[in-house]
Amino acid sequence: MSGELGQPQAGPSHAGLDLPNPERNRAGVPGGVIRRAGAQGRRSWIQKVLEQITDSPLQWVTPSEVVPVAVLAVQRYLLEDEPRDTIPKPPLYCYDVTISDGVYQEKCYLDPSLNFLVYKNILKVGIEMKISRVSCLYNEKRLGQGILCIDNVHCGETLEDISLETPFRNSAHEEVPERPLRGGKSHYLALWNNEDPYGDIWLTNKQPEEHNFNNTKIISLSHLEMTWSNRRNFPALLVRILHKSKLRYYGKPDKKMIEPYQTFLEVADSSGTVSVIMWNALCPEWYKSLRVGLVLLLQDYSVKKSYPFRMQPLPVDPQIKLISTMEICLNLRDPPTNIIIIPEKQVKPEWRLPKLNHRFITRSELDDMPENHICDVIGILVFVGRVQRSKKKESREDFWSYRWIHIADGTSEQPFIVELFSTSQPEIFENIYPMTYFVCTQLKLVRNDAQVPKLLYLTTTNESRVFLTGHRGQPYTNDIKVKNFIHWIKTRTDSEEVRTTVIGGYYPYPPVPETFSKYSNSVKVESLLTAISEVRKEIEDLQYREQKRIAIQGIITVIKYIPHASATENASASETLRNANRPSTSQATRRENQSQERDNNKQYQDDDPMGSQYFPATHESLSPTKKKRILQGPCAKLIPVPQPETSPQRGNRPDTPNIFQRRESTSAGVQGKARKTISDRWESPLWREKKFGLIDHLHYSCVHPESIPRKFIFEQRKFLTEQFNSQPAKYIPPEGRPPKLEDFKSARSLGHFEVTILGLNHEIAIDVAFLPMYSPEDLRTSQIDTLLTCMNYSCVYPQETPGNDRLPRALAESQCLFQ
Description:
Layout: H1 22-28, H2 45-55, E1 60-61, E2 68-78, E3 93-100, E4 105-110, H3 115-119, E5 127-138, E6 146-158, H4 221-227, E7 237-244, E8 248-249, E9 261-269, E10 272-279, H5 282-286, E11 295-299, E12 302-305, E13 322-330, E14 338-342, H6 363-366, E15 374-384, E16 388-391, E17 399-408, E18 416-421, H7 426-429, E19 437-448, E20 455-460, E21 466-467, H8 480-491, H9 496-500, E22 502-503, H10 516-522, H11 535-541, E23 553-562, H12 564-581, H13 590-605, E24 614-617, E25 638-640, E26 660-664, E27 674-679, E28 681-683, H14 685-690, E29 696-700, E30 710-711, H15 717-724, E31 752-758, E32 764-770, E33 773-774, H16 787-793, E34 795-796, E35 815-818
Parallel strand pairs: 4-6, 10-13, 15-22, 18-20, 29-32, 33-34
Antiparallel strand pairs: 1-5, 2-3, 2-5, 3-4, 5-6, 7-9, 7-11, 8-9, 9-10, 11-14, 12-13, 15-17, 15-19, 16-17, 17-18, 19-20, 19-21, 22-30, 23-28, 23-31, 23-35, 24-27, 25-35, 26-27, 31-32
């Protein structure tokens, strides 16, 4: 538990703790300005713990009474090196946790040994938590001040509702702006990435102001380029912002930077365009107030030689000179920069400032664009995936946040597929949902026509900006393609987008190449293959929403089909098992986990190896859609590894499974009609022989509710958006009684597969889930004829033509890769 141990200051409404020893009360009681519960109210558990640790001769105590508290906030920051540290450590992020016992709130410091609870999203806002050990870390430079630390906790279930009306016991924790409990850093970071501005240090109140130019000397960018090296003082610059980059946080424990941020502005006047770098404390002051298109008057800046390896974005006008020999630096000091936003009504034509020139393209034009082409798009969102994270560097704690979205613009049956990374606009990134009008600028085209299926999608760049509905007043509204889209929106009567909009779910894009050799050429890692014995550690090291692809060699020995109706039940049961096994306390032992694994192994080995149930896939559930819908992909992808010396020939394998089978059936409602049925399980003879001799069986086939894409319901947009966003840093009370995610209809008509892969040494097996997407009009399905290929391309394409036997078939005992 962490609070600030301060000197109590008695006042009319804030009294010190009522302890018998006033001297001890003055010097050692955790507090600052202390509130005391009224005589008639119930006693604060937080207050009792603070008194107990004050009375203890040790630096830690076990509370005499452990009661549940509610978690209201989990906030992250960078802890700088202590003076005693001689060797700089890699970035170490710390967490302050705000708890409430129903009487008081208290901000607490989480011991770094428990950081993994935050990494796994086990310790999160809105849950019930029991604290079983606390310690105290004193500030030796100040009298009676220190920090209470949470040393041991048990994380419980999510609470239905938590009151935010309880006051802080220490009024210092209510001060604005919020400050971390430890270290010299002045602010908190976003909980899950470093690109998003977070907290109350980020101002938004900078407004345009008219300026008297009579006594202002202005220099052009081209003239400055020629003379800056011979100048000591620089005249003012009058420029327009053409591009604005996302934030870059460069804080390190060994650097004493208070607000180590950096952002780039590409600005231009009539003579050229140049990069402007805004540093450190200027970023929280100005970043959220500056936007593309504003006119700025810059005074008291500095100039330096440009960084040679940075690529500037293309100028909006090819006629404007790109100045790459110098950079303009804006800083709070050395010298203190003066920035003025000039109102547009004061901008004079004779200044000849460049106008914004957007590069909007339509979806029908995308197929003809070259790779790495930079463009802008506008459309309506028809799919919004959940927020995912990928590690920037394997040995670091920093992550990128991103999500996949689909944008339709009415010019093609196909949507734009966009990989949307955080653009330092969390107010938009965390509030996008289907059926919203959406603009994204400075996107880069990624394509590979040699890959099967062809790869074609857009990804954000460092200068990408996003905009939601309410485009009035934006600089792009006069673009002809924007006007055409708005006209299409107003005149369309087709409600297909409304009926087919989808939100959330796991989205494994882009698909892997169709052969292992192409896959190996496309992956830039030290070790291409992961031993199946190392998979457990790879999975355990994954953090919240982290996406990572690994490749293993193995033999497909079991394929089981799980219909959608039972998929949800399976997910709930599996999640219950996961919750029972997860390390919710800091002292869970590996022996318990190994015991549980043995129990699970026995449970799976006792399954009936030959299921006899069938799942009817009716014509209605398999009917083609009018729009392409990429709904879901696998948690496991399988890539054939060519090994002709050892792989048996397909014709010599009588036990090759046919998962999709045609069977004649009759029912009371439909007589004499052929129906497709799907056998729910296939098992290899090799599995029957080897499964009882395994030394380990890893079970990772659980499909959790948030991994399933849901049909979007506009009336429930707030709840659905929250479910597929990242976990917030502060508790947000629900509006009324929220529904359950499992109650929302899945966007997939089919269920999923559980695939068991046996290691090449026949000692370890792993269960993985394959979540296919079903889209008969998806071009990627045109060459699919086996279940193995299905898994490779993330889709299922059962043929409907009678007599056509190109149905997905699983290749038994094929050498494969698990990705």
